[in-house]
Write a structure and sequence with these properties.
mainly alpha; 81% helix; 4 helices
Amino acid sequence: MGIAFSGLLLTFFRDYVSPVGLIIFSTVILALSQALMLNPDLNPGFLIVYSTIGAANAFGIYILAIACYCNEEYGAMEFGQIFSLILSAGALGLFAYDELMI
């Protein structure tokens, strides 16, 4: 849903929406969703469902916006290296966070 929505926005409303704007928008949605997930015992069940849906859609928007940004800024020839570097850094950050929290 998030990828389809952001793809339609970037396709049909390109004059008004930029990949950087979508990155900021998805970051705000993701921060709000993650704030609701911090203490699930205090939140009712429906808030956890909404925060999970929001986080999933925000990550979808984020991946598409990062891919569009890399393609526009660095071109098609350098897209693979830059995009894989961003994804690898994110994966290493998640791995480090997982190791620190256990």
